[in-house]
Design brief:
The chain is mainly alpha-helical. The protein is built from three helices and no strands. It has one domain (2-80): Helix Hairpins (Orthogonal Bundle), CATH 1.10.287. The radius of gyration is 15 Å and the shape is flat.
Amino acid sequence: MIATVAAVTGIILAVAGVLTTYRLLDGPGSLDRLVALDTLIAVAMGGLAVWAAYSGDTTIVPSIVALSLVSFIGSVAVARFRVSDK
């Protein structure tokens, strides 16, 4: 049962990653690309969390926390010093 849930979740996360990558590459503005990058990192964190739950390996959890902190700091820095699109 858990393998089925993990597989379905992995497929959904993969589709979300592909759609988000499209938005990241084709975004009309810099803020759209920033939101897409944040979403892609969140999808990656979700994938890591699914793997941690499936495998029972809790050593991945600190890396998920570190990834979320780096993502937050990067997003705040880019949003703070962003040049407006013309």
